[in-house]
Write a structure and sequence with these properties.
Blueprint: H1 12-73, H2 88-97, H3 103-115, E1 121-127, E2 133-137, H4 152-160, E3 166-171, E4 183-192, E5 202-212, H5 214-220, E6 230-234, E7 240-243, E8 261-267, E9 274-280, H6 281-284, H7 286-332, H8 347-362, H9 390-406, H10 410-427, E10 433-435, H11 436-454, E11 459-465, E12 473-475, H12 480-491, E13 498-507, E14 511-518, H13 525-537, H14 547-560, E15 565-571, E16 575-583
Helix pairs in contact: 1-5, 1-7, 2-3, 7-8, 9-10, 10-11
C-alpha cells in the first residue's frame, strides 16, 4: 500500500524554499525598515534645518536693511552746502530764520541727492518745524496737499526718538493721489549741530523716506517656497510688514495652529522683528515621500524576486530528487526497466546518471560480479594575473621621498611629494569631471614643481576664484595643460619674472567662465591664427606643441557639445589669454569602465 511521501511539510522543496526565504527575506525586511526610518528622519531634519538656515539668513538681511537706511538718513549730517560738508543743518536753520528764498532750493538739492542713492526709495520728504515741507517722488504722483503730512503718530514718535531712526510699519501712501503700492517709512530729525549753542542742537527739520516692499522681495527671493507656504515679517506690535501672501501685508499676524504646517521663527538681532515661516508639511516632505515610495517599490520588487528565485531554485533542486525517488520505488518492487531523465550536468545530474547506471548494472549482478568504478573529475584553477596597482607606485615614491629627507635633501623630497600627489590625481581614471577645488589643488602641486625647478624669481601664480564656485564641476586636467603652455611658451622665453592668473566667474545663462592669462612673450598674428585653425580642425592635424590645448578643447566639446570649448587671444610682447566656457553644474561625472578579471 503506497502512500504519498511528498506532503508539503515533509518535502525537501518546502524546506529549501522556507530556508532560502528566511535567510534572505528576514534580514532584507529588517535592513529595509531600519534604512527607511533612518533615511526619512534624516531627510526631514535636513529639510527643516534648511528652512531654519534660510530664515536666519533673512533675519540678518533685515538687520542689514535697517542699518542701510539708518546710514542713508545720516547723510543729512555729511551733505555739503556752500562747499563745506556737514553744513546742511546750519544752512537750513539760517535760511529759515532769515526767510531766505534759497531754503527750498537747498532742501530740494538734498532730497534729489538722497532719492537716487538706493533703488527701493520711492519718495522722500523734509518737514520744517513750522509744518511746511518739500518732497520728491520717483513715481510721478501728485501730492495731496489737503492731507495733513506727516501723520500725528509719526510726529510723536520722532519727537520721542529725538536722535534715533524712527520706523513706521507698512502702510498705503494716502498722501499721494492715485498711489496704491504699500511702503514703509523711516524718519530722522536733523539737528543744527554746528550753529546752535545748545548741547544737542536745535531741530531744524525732520527727514522722512518711503521704502518700497521690493526690498523684502529681494531678501526673500532666494527662498524656494511651495504654493501653500507663507513667510511673514512681523514687527514688535504684531503688524505684518511683509508677506508673500500680499493681502496679509499691514494686518495683525495670527499664527496658523494647524499641525499640517511646520512653524519656524527667527528674530532679528537688533530690531526685535520676527521672521516667521509656515511651511506646508505635505509639500515640504513630498519629495522625501516620493523617494521613500520609490525605495519601497524597489524593496518590494526585490522581495518578490527573492521569493520567485527561491521557489525556482528549490523546485529545480527538488524535482530531480523526486524523480529519482519515484524510480527507486519501482526498483524496490523488482522493476529494473526504469530510467531517470538527465537534464543537468551538476551534482543532481550526476546523481541521476549514476542511478541509471546502477539500475542497468544490477541486471548483470545476477551472473557477474559488478565492479564499480568512480570517476572523479579534477578542476583546474587558472592562476590570477597579478596587477600592478597605483598604491604600489605611491608607496615606492614615498620610500624614495623619505630616503631623500633622511639625506637632508628636503627640496627633492618636496618634489617627490608633489609628483606623488599629481600621479595619484592623474591615475584615477574614474572621473570625467572634478570640483574646481580639486583641479586648483592639482595646479598648485604642478606649479610647486615648476617653482622648485625655475625659482620664485621667475614664476608667479595668482588665483581669482569666487568661494561659491569652488564646488562647481570642471573637466579633469583642463587647467594644468594650459598652465604648462603658459610657462614653457609664454614666460620661459621672457626675461624676468612672469605671472599666470587664473580667474573663474559665473556667466549669464548658467555658464561658467574660466580664464588663464599670462604676461609672457605672447604670439604673433600668424602664430595665433595657426593655433586657432588647429583648434577648429581638431587632432586630425599635425598638432605639434598645441596638443594640450586641443586635447582640452576636444574633451570639453565631447562632454558638453560643440557650443563650448577653448578660446585663445594673444598679443606679442604683452601676453596670452586662454578662456574656457562650460555649463555651470555641481554634479561631478564618473566614467564607467569595464575591467576584465
Amino acid at each position: 500500500m503506497a502512500s504519498n511521501p511528498f506532503r508539503l511539510h515533509k518535502s525537501i522543496f518546502a524546506k529549501f524554499t522556507l530556508s532560502f526565504i528566511s535567510v534572505g527575506l528576514i534580514p532584507l525586511l529588517i535592513l529595509s525598515y531600519i534604512s527607511l526610518q533612518t533615511f526619512s528622519g534624516f531627510m526631514e531634519r535636513y529639510a527643516t534645518n534648511n528652512y531654519e538656515q534660510m530664515l536666519l539668513f533673512a533675519s540678518r538681511n533685515v538687520d542689514d536693511m535697517f542699518v542701510k537706511y539708518n546710514n542713508i538718513s545720516k547723510l543729512m549730517y555729511s551733505y555739503g552746502v556752500g562747499g563745506l560738508y556737514g553744513q546742511l543743518g546750519q544752512a537750513i536753520a539760517a535760511q529759515s530764520k532769515e526767510k531766505d528764498i534759497r531754503l527750498t532750493m537747498t532742501i530740494n538739492d538734498f532730497l534729489q541727492t538722497v532719492l537716487y542713492t538706493e533703488r527701493n526709495l520711492q519718495s522722500v520728504f523734509f518737514v520744517l518745524p513750522n509744518g511746511t515741507y518739500e518732497n520728491l517722488s520717483k513715481n510721478n504722483v501728485a501730492m495731496d496737499y489737503q492731507y495733513p503730512y506727516p501723520k500725528v503718530e509719526w510726529k510723536e514718535q520722532t519727537k520721542l526718538n529725538r536722535n534715533g531712526l524712527s520706523f513706521f510699519p507698512t502702510h498705503k501712501q494716502d498722501y499721494f493721489l492715485g498711489a496704491t503700492d504699500p511702503v514703509m517709512t523711516f524718519g530722522r530729525n536733523l539737528t543744527d549741530v554746528l550753529g546752535s549753542s545748545k548741547v544737542e542742537g536745535d531741530i531744524v527739520g525732520t527727514f522722512y523716506m518711503d521704502v518700497g516692499l521690493g526690498v523684502f522681495t529681494e531678501i526673500f527671493k532666494q527662498m524656494v517656497l511651495n504654493k501653500q507656504d507663507t513667510v511673514y515679517v512681523v514687527d514688535n506690535q504684531g503688524i505684518i510688514l511683509y508677506s508673500n501672501q500680499l493681502e496679509l501685508i499691514g494686518t495683525v499676524f495670527h499664527a496658523n495652529t494647524s499641525d499640517d504646517f511646520l512653524h519656524l521663527q527667527q528674530a532679528t538681532a537688533e530690531n526685535n522683528i520676527q521672521i516667521v515661516g509656515e511651511f506646508y508639511k505635505k509639500e515640504l516632505f513630498l519629495k522625501v515621500e516620493q523617494l521613500i515610495r520609490t525605495i519601497t517599490i524597489v524593496i518590494g520588487l526585490c522581495i518578490v524576486s527573492l521569493i520567485v528565485v527561491a521557489v525556482w531554485f528549490s523546485n529545480r533542486f527538488s524535482n530531480p530528487i523526486r524523480s529519482i525517488t519515484r524510480e527507486m520505488a519501482k526498483v524496490e518492487s523488482g522493476n529494473f526497466d526504469t530510467n531517470v531523465t538527465v537534464k543537468t550536468a551538476d551534482e543532481l545530474g550526476l546523481l541521476s546518471h549514476g542511478f541509471n547506471k546502477m539500475v542497468g548494472r544490477l541486471k548483470e549482478y545476477i551472473d557477474v560480479v559488478y565492479v564499480a568504478q568512480i570517476k572523479q573529475k579534477q578542476a583546474e584553477l587558472n592562476a590570477l594575473k597579478s596587477q600592478i596597482r597605483p598604491h604600489y607606485l605611491y608607496n615606492t615614491l614615498e620610500v624614495i621621498r623619505m630616503s631623500a629627507v633622511a639625506e637632508d635633501a628636503n627640496e627633492v623630497g618636496d618634489m617627490i611629494l608633489s609628483l606623488s600627489h599629481q600621479l595619484k590625481y592623474v591615475l584615477d581614471y574614474g572621473e570625467e569631471t572634478v570640483t574646481i577645488k580639486s583641479e586648483k589643488t592639482n595646479v598648485e602641486q604642478y606649479f610647486q614643481l615648476m617653482v622648485i625647478r625655475y625659482g620664485e624669481h621667475r614664476l608667479g601664480l595668482d588665483f581669482r576664484f569666487d568661494a561659491d564656485l569652488m564646488d562647481c564641476a570642471i573637466p579633469k586636467l583642463s587647467l594644468q595643460p594650459i598652465v604648462e603652455n603658459a610657462i614653457y611658451h609664454g614666460i620661459m622665453p621672457k626675461s624676468g619674472k612672469g605671472t599666470i592668473r587664473i580667474s573663474i566667474e559665473k556667466l549669464p545663462d548658467n555658464l561658467l567662465g574660466v580664464t588663464v592669462d599670462d604676461d609672457g612673450v605672447g604670439m604673433s598674428e600668424e602664430t595665433l591664427e595657426r593655433v586657432r585653425l588647429k583648434l577648429a580642425q581638431g587632432s586630425s592635424l599635425d598638432i605639434g606643441s598645441s596638443i594640450g590645448l586641443i586635447n582640452v578643447h576636444e574633451r570639453i566639446m565631447g562632454l558638453y557639445g560643440h557650443g563650448y570649448g577653448v578660446e585663445i587671444n594673444s598679443s606679442q610682447h604683452i601676453g596670452t589669454t586662454v578662456r574656457l566656457v562650460i555649463p555651470l553644474t555641481k554634479e561631478v561625472s564618473v566614467r564607467v569602465e569595464r575591467h576584465s578579471s
